[in-house]
Amino acid sequence: MSTISILTTILSLLSIASAVPFTPSSTDLFLHDFSKRALTCPSSDKTYYTSGTKVFYIGCNVNYAGNDMPSPNGQAAGSLDACMDICAKRSGCVGATWPLNTKKCWLKKSLSTATTKTDVWAGKLQSTSYVQGKGKRGLAYNNGAWTKYFAIAGQASKVSWMVNWYSKSTTADFTAAAHSKLDFVPMLWSNASDLTSVIATNAASAKNVLAFNEPDQCGGGGSCLGTPQQAASYYKKYMQPLSTSTRRLGSPAVTNSLSSSAGLAYLADFLTACSSCTVDFVAIHWYGDASDVSGFKQHVQNAYSVGGGRKVWITEFGCASGTVAQTKDFMRSVLPWLDAQGFVERYAYFGVFNQYQDNWDLISSDGSKLTELGVLYNTM
């Protein structure tokens, strides 16, 4: 037996079972980079880990003896976060321990008093409580169930609102209830009669309403409403009546096309044609390369100028090209910048999906949890 093996054995035998405090407090912070997602000790000690809608409080060198769940149990798990994911999916699991030497996940049906044990890591299930984050960040989603992976107590989430391209938080295709605490913002996607006929009713309690989605684009998700002047006529007919002293209206959300008949040029012409309209803030979209941080920032600043000093909402933005790692770097650059700009009121990354493309999806491919991008967007 090597000297290292002997020392390891001695340390294992000397592991004591004294009671240790293991209760989250309001001063606990996210002490590691959650964009990396992997839990490691000691950097992950006294942090929170989210798997789906469940939150675990992480402890290093902490053990919960006994109270194991029935088989299957003790499965191999390559990491502590993988172990927490197993617990999150198992009905009745309230926590788990993960010995570093065996890398097996021991699920618990109840938790004994936490004790100190070297190289045993553990997670303790917290009660799930939904909150509204204190930030500008929003969720662009279809499936309301996935919005519940964000803005959970203990996450320090910055997500505060959500949008789904419709005037209700659920649709005929996606009936799952959405997050109960986030501010849902209705949208009148186009001038289609099945949308205009319900917007007043569906937006009755809304504080903000978004107008047409990419009227400057035909195909690719655009509402294709013709010229800016035509879009202005639809706005006057369907959006203007929604304006009240307590409800604000957003402009049509234009693309970042550089064409003279689209993008910010379209927005400028729309505002001229709708000079008598109530347009409280301007909405824009941006898609580009993950390396084009300066181009993104300049486009947002240009939108503020074109909007005549109105606040700016970026209701969709994303990296059309670039790896996940490059997209994470993009987020690290632009999210703090957006938060710091007084003229930027709200923004939403595209999006809360699981099978578009890796550098867009904030949800894992199986729909069970946040991706690395999702975790970063939720809390950074």
UniProtKB/TrEMBL annotation:
A GO biological process of this protein is:
fungal-type cell wall polysaccharide metabolic process
Q: Where is the signal peptide?
A: 1-19
Q: Name one GO cellular component term.
A: extracellular region
- SUPFAM superfamilies xref list: (Trans)glycosidases
* Domain Asl1-like glycosyl hydrolase catalytic, chain residue ranges per copy: 138-377
Q: Does the keyword Secreted apply?
A: no
Q: Which domain of life is it from?
A: Eukaryota
Any single GO molecular-function term of the entry would be: hydrolase activity
Membrane-spanning segments: none
Under the heading CDD domains, the entry gives: APPLE_Factor_XI_like
Q: Which UniProt keywords apply?
A: Disulfide bond, Hydrolase, Repeat, Signal
Keyword Disulfide bond annotated: yes
Protein name, as recorded: Glycoside hydrolase family 128 protein
